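Good morning C.,

I know you're traveling, so I'll keep this short. The sequence:
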Amino acid sequence: MGEKTFLYPCSRCGMCCMAKPCIHAMATGVPEHTQPCPYLYFEKEEAFCGLAETFPQLDFGFGKGCCMKGRLIKNGKEQSVAGIPVAMKRAFVEQLRDGRGSIVCNEPERTR
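The tokens, ready to paste straight into the viewer:
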């Protein structure tokens, strides 16, 4: 099976890790519905993973594309999260970091 491709590029906004820990984090004991992943940290607006720094040999998917399958609803208009502009993603993540918003997950399983 070939490598998964994504329609939109990864912007290192951290939204995916705000929503749900990856399989590597869950393997360390992080509960599946933890928000945000405890390994997530930021330097300015760019997201980083403490676990990926400890285990660089594992595939965390950084830079491969936006894996967010959710939708964002603002002012009654619905958009795919993956397709929103990078600045909007980062602004939304900033609001989440400040406690001004939430992500509701109903995806059965995250693959990375």
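Safe travels,
E.
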